[in-house]
Amino acid sequence: MTGKIVILAALAVVAAVLLAGVVVMAIGGNASARWSNVLMRYRILAQAVALLVILLVVYFAAGH
User: How many structural domains does the chain have?
Assistant: First the structure.
């Protein structure tokens, strides 16, 4: 049960960063030019962490 919560939290962080990036692009102008690339980097980092969390949960759930 704890593993599912951790996975959902990691996926929620990825979704929040993705949504923030979409909102910034929709605003446009200076905000888009300044924050789009930064948010994309944070999204990639969040996705990598989420993947690592999923792999760790699966690994420990298998009884290793």
Answer: 1
Cα separation, 25 vs 39, whole angstroms: 10
Query: Which pLDDT score is estimated for 52?
Result: 97
Question: What mean pLDDT do residues 12-40 have?
Answer: 90
CA 63, CA 35: separation in Å to the nearest integer?
Answer: 42
- Sequence-ordered list of residues with C-beta below 8 angstroms from that of 58, at least 6 positions apart, any chain: none
Range of the domain at 6: 2-61
> What span, in angstroms and rounded, lies between the C-alpha atoms of 64 and 45?
26
Q: Quote the CA–CA distance of 24 and 14 in Å, as a whole number.
A: 15
Q: At what angle do helices 2-27 and 29-61 cross, to 10 degrees?
A: 170
